[in-house]
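REVIEWER CHECKLIST
Item 1: Sequence provided? yes
Item 2: Single chain? yes
Item 3: Sequence as submitted:
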Amino acid sequence: MNFEAARIKMVDNQIRTTDVTSHTVLSAFLSVPREEFVPAAMKPLAYIDTDVELSGATEGRRYLMEPSPMAKLLQLATITGGDKVLEIGAGTGYTSAILSSLAASVIAVESDAALATEATATLGRLGYGNVEVVTGTLEAGYASGAPYDVIFVNGAVETVPEALLDQLKDGGRLVAVVGFGNASRARIYTREAGKTSERLAFNTAVKPLPGFRIAREFVF
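Item 4: Structure as written out by the authors:
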């Protein structure tokens, strides 16, 4: 299979057609070999217009996000070449590699130790030297590396914890899909003078990350 041709078709037919115009984002998707970050049996399907289930996860089902919403979320984050980025939910490292092409440095948190090990190996083999994969609780982020210019939440969540928002530097942005299924929306949170503002961006549906549930209260 000609993966380079499939990559170009993905960008032209799936990403450009959904209002993604950022040259840097488009270039990153053209440069990163998506087929290297999916299970071997799924390589022929690496560029299809859907989420790809990842094998080897020990925390339940995990997915590589569909290209179009991923690209729209990355464009929303307006990442620049000098930015320090925190990724929540590295999976096998594909989004980490895209972020590596956009930012100065990336810390990618992954709660599933098997996926973190795989991501570290693949990113190292492909030469993405400005990415560090760490194993930890996704909701907690990685405070020891804070503050960050951008936090990218790589999957749908029910709520965005204050612990993550507190790791943004002044002027920093957090991008996440909040809600599940067709009721979910992409949102961007901006930190200014210690306070966070929130803006709705677009409707989308992506697979959820583990955790990030709102605590339920019992009423007696």
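Item 5: Key structural point noted by reviewer: The radius of gyration is 16 Å.
Item 6: Recommendation: ____
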